[in-house]
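3.2 Worked example (two chains)
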Amino acid sequence: MSYTARPNYKRSLEHNFDCCIASREPYRYRSKSANPPVGNKILYTAPVSAAKTRYVPPFSIQTQQRNTKVVDAPLAKGPSSGSASARGKTDQKTIRLSVTKVKLGSGHDLSKPHRSSSFRMYFDRGDLPIKMEYLCGGDKIGWTVDIDKLDYSLYLPLFFDGLCETEHPYKTYARQGVSDLLLAGGDKIAPVIPQLILPLKNALSTKNLEVMCTTLKIIQQLVLSSDQVGPALVPFYRQLLPMFNAYKVKNLNCGDEIDYAQKNNMNLGDLIDETLQVLELHGGEDAFINIKYMVPTYESCYLN
């Protein structure tokens, strides 16, 4: 039996691969038979697909991918035209026009929307019996109706609701109106105490230093206006005194310097101590135990 040499397939494959790389032609079909296919026709080629451009929304993670195009933002009207710098200037101009001016007051919190008080609504409608008198010593409000003839159940809570105002002339009218009503109220104030708790709580919750200090002074004047007011406020300590406990330790520590603003009595910690002492002195027998329950760090003024 004669011996027939088998062809070296590995060597032939390497030769074909080298030839394809050298000629940079796609891989051609190699028939295992001795008779290759007729012609120079390519029977198999690798599929090549052209990458299409995808439109993606702006400010998304897809904008960092390849073959993507950012869609125009809603500010742009119509198809984008011109250079990128021109489009940027147009967008900046549009955004700048949409910015509104915000007035910043002392201690004003922008995270909270401004609550329109009932006092401002009545004042804008002209339903309050007051007017401004410009005197040499300063502005002062004048009453168009005698204070003794006013209905305290209506006007006293209304003026107390204006204590949270920080803009002129609302705050001026509200604070001076409350002071005048308390001076001339007498026995008319005690029956209206339950209606004054919510306006006082709202004013203390503004966290505005000027509003809180003014409200504390008003509370002292309210307690001293009549002997019946102090005991009438004791059941409402749970609504008023939580803010006292939160800001009782907020005192101004200026070291060896001189506090020239002390004459205005705007130190919140000292005002809270003075107000608590006034509440204890004029609140009756149950005043101290109720104050101690809400403000544990308070010490009785009788023992000191």
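3.2.1 Second chain
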Amino acid sequence: MRKLLIFGTISNPFSVITRFFNRSVEVKTMNKTFKLNTGFDIPLAGFGTYQIHGQELIYQVLDYALEAGYRHIDTAVVYRNEEYIGSALKTLLPKYNLKREDIFITSKLISQSGKDEAFVEQMVRKSLANLQTDYLDLYLIHWPGVSGMQVTHPDNVKYRAASWNALSKLQREGCLRSIGVSNYTVKHLKEMLADCKGIVPAVNQVEWHPYYYQPELLEFCRQHGIFLQAYSSLGSSNTAELREDETVQSVAKSLQKTPVQVLLRWAIEQEVGILPKARSRDHIQENVGLEFDIPAEQMKQLNGLRDSVGHKFAWNPETVV
């Protein structure tokens, strides 16, 4: 298994992104894992469930996902589908001769506002009950801001620290194997590391695609043993802009792959985790067809999209104090 790599100071903005050029595919993407700073292994590729609702649909897509080889399922309290996922897995795991320990489940909670740490524990216990499991492999603070509070309010700092303290307690108890964050910037991470009670985040899940990526954030995370996961790898669900980009289309054509596969492989080349979501069996199968390398020159072309075209598709955590 490839170990998490530690890097030095960035000498140019693409140094982290280009470290893995011309690296052969050593392990099938769906079988590849990273060892987190907690000692647990996380699959490099996970199945995202954002905007996938309803008992029947959740069952169907998870059936397709497990069939395709996914062993990591990513959800969140605000997705409002934990209960459906728990019910589906109760039936689907035996169907595929899997046990609970064979899969990796992630959920997330936005920092609480005006509540004590007991509220966070209450929400975690609810997630455990909804997902019908005694433990979660990973639980994240979904956003550095606080629900119902202005992003510029100084109390954001206090409440996210309280949330972290509550999750740290639950990790020590064992019902959360690893804990981490999502949408945290370098500023937020530095603040957390200065007072994290000895528990460094295992994961930071952020927007990451050729139109928007942060080499400095990737470098910082690797220096501190924090695994970086990408969301919005294909851009936004509301637009095909990134998938229809001329450069992405050209690279895909030259490699005889689809634009979706190129965008997902672009992150894999950097050893950044991916969490693509899909609803049809064909798209789910497409998303796991990643056993190829993107040549260095074409990686440079894709990297260049950030400066020539780039923009974000999701919210901007830089505005949160």
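3.3 Remarks
Confidence is low (pLDDT under 50) at residues 1-16, 18-26.
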